[in-house]
Specification:
single chain, 2 domains, 86% helix
Length: 73
Amino acid sequence: MARDTESIEREIEAARNQLAGTLDELSVRANPKNIVANTKAQLFAKLGEPKVKYTLIGAGAAVVAIVLIRTFR
């Protein structure tokens, strides 16, 4: 049974609308400002984890200790 022209046109219009929505979403995601903001948020979230935070504090303290030891020798 052949589909009528109107139903085919409705399906094509629905596909176009879906594609337009997808393209809009991709343009928002690909915006450099949004990429920077998302990356920055992920970085701060990762740095806020206790395991990472205390490792960085320990490494910083070790660097300061080494600099002080070499300076005052």
